[in-house]
Amino acid sequence: MAISAKGGSLCLKKICFQGVRKHFSAVGVEAVLGLPTPLIKDLLPHLTVCQLDELQPALNQRGLSTHPGWIRVLQDMCGPNHVTDFDTEEEAKHEVMRMLFTLVFYGFTNPFVKRNIANLNTPSFLWAAAKCIKHFLLTTPVESLTAERRPLLNLLEKRIWSVGVSQSIAISKRRTQTALYVLHRLLDHGVAKKIVVHVQCPIVLAWILHGRGSQYVNPDLKELLESKKASCVSQTASASADGASCGSGLGTGAAEEQVTPCKRSKLDSAEDPRRSNFTLDPQVLCRTFTPRDGPSVGACPWGRIDCLDIRQCGSDSLRVLNSALPTFFCLRSLTLHSFLTFRDSDVLSLAKALKQLSDSSHSSLADLNISVLPCTWLVEVLLDASPKLASLTAEIQTLMWGQRLLPQRPRAAASGVSERLPLEKLDIKVAELQTDLRFVTSVLRRCPQFTSLRLAGIRLPSGSSLSQLFTTLSDSNPLLRSLNLEDLKLSDCLPEILNLLRDCKLQELRFNDCRLLEQWSNKEESLQQLVDALKAVPSLHALSLAQNRLAKNVCVLAELFSGPAPSSVKRLDVSSNFIQPAELLEFAKRLRIHRPPHRLTLDLRVNPGDRDPDTWNAALKRLRPFCVLLVKGWSSTDTMADHISNM
Fold it and tell me: Which of 512, 528, 607, 633 has the lowest tally of Cβ within 10 angstroms?
């Protein structure tokens, strides 16, 4: 069978690229850099992760980016329909290294790892990945970090900003020491200031918090530490040639203890660890795991946790945290998530601890993220307890119908007028049959420095409207920069939306699944009014109208960029709008006439392009010269998704 000259050339080119990949060390970096620029760009998607990492500095000096190579790796890992929304070289590279490091380090696998195991299961890959990643996920086993991979631990100490604990650490087991030692090295000797706890393990939480910010000493942890302190210190000291001492660090914490511990049951029902020959003291652990031929170990430093994220926060963990909070002065960000709804009493206890912390002039807490609260009322309780917060994120699920019996709480001011707050960001997601909008508007009126608002899921009583929300924003929040509304009914709020847009400094606007067109008698005319108002906001650079059943009306959005003063929007999201291929083609034609002044990132995911693939692809071809397209496949055989999108 005859092969065309062009086809043969492409085939030969690919064979050469594969040869460079296979024999990269023999070819050498200098030889690759000596290739013509177009050939280097074509070569990048064929190289391995380590080869891309090695070439990147030299290519950057020549003004070339390895971004296409990293994107190709991501597509190979995640599949062709996965949207790789990473605009910069470093973002794409970090995502690749983040995904692969944990898989390779712990010996996990997936189809990509299996295909590339010879290039990944090497010390050079782990070393290259460790230089890129910022988060380390601690699971078991990690013994290699105290043996053949110890140099990797030294590197991680200098690079890791955030540590995650993804597996319960059984205090009664010997392997615990290795995991706690690695935590100690990253938190106390390294630069990590953020800890993410994915498991419900109160005694380990107490160990993590001990000495790293709060002055409180957990009584159960203190008992465990002191029970082995003497024996472990004497054993370690006798084995050390220099005889240097390494205290447990309990003395200072106990002396400065200011918070009365609450009565509670034992934190861990496991076997009594005092029967085992091990220690929980981080400083003794450090001496135990330091190589005998290594440098002598003096007193270890104590790290400081400024960001704490507890992903499974049950009542026992919350009690541990509440005891530590009043003197946790270095804590800047706190995230608490419970798979079950928090009890009212738990939230009120948390508010009491937060109030004690906030009353101190040394408090640094600025960000609070909590889910799931049982009622909207508790949002204001937490704000009153922490009036210095700059950001509050809360998810609310009301499981009861009707009136709730709630304890009486004092108002912020005797006059009944709540004091102003420095809050800049509020993110509220609600799941309840009906919500009183006043709980949101009252907070907005108290926060004149507000810059970011996200609301999702609010359901009002029949006959009510969200128009008051936009009126309040117009009157009380002139500094608003980001407005993100999801799963709300806004079709009757167009006049108030237009009024807000007349005098605002919005940079990001998202109306996702807001049923915008639902009650508009003339959908095209009303959408044109919205487009005209949006064009008049010069600061706006991101606009999302996803899941609004735009369909054929998407063509109106091309008018954003028409006329002598086009919109400054650089990112437009019209995903999940049941846009048919012919409608997208018409939109592309109009957008080609009214070209955006900047390259536009256009999100077209979850629209029925397979109804007419040729027309859909023709539309994409017209858009690509001036758009970065985010496209994910759609299956029209999924009739339920089809039905929901067209409701």
Answer: 633
